[in-house]
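Appendix B, Record 12. Input sequence as logged:
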Amino acid sequence: MAVAPETAADLVYQIFDLQRAVRCVAISSTRGRDTGVALQGVLRFVGEGESRATKLAARLGVSAPVLSRHIADLEEQGLVVRRPDPEDGRAQLVALSEAGEGKLHEIEQQRTATLQGYLQDWSQSDAEETAKILKKLAESLKDSARATTAGSTETIPTV
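Logged structural output:
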């Protein structure tokens, strides 16, 4: 069953509203910290495992030069390390340093505590259901974006 246009429009509005709220919370919780919101996002993705900078840029939806600046900032802070990719000497692999792992853990604990504070009037089941629905939404959007990026797999018959 397809989603009605009015429902899709409301969902778009709610997603943008959620993005604004999350951005405001993130900005207020990072004031005075050495690692801003953008760098924290990069740190989070790097924390998923060593990978090529180009792959990280694609996952984050930023250009290679933008990611390069973020990686340089994180490297200067001692939070990430770079090394040449053994499969392609022109490419670089990026990973968290030991300090980066500690910093990421600290950031995630702080974000968890902040969110717990904001959700004090929520039930455990409401939080679990919301997490489940958000995960489903994210997966649907990622799958659609990947399909669009990859192009259609349909073959066009020739006459």
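Residues 13-144 form a domain with the Arc Repressor Mutant, subunit A fold (CATH 1.10.10.10).
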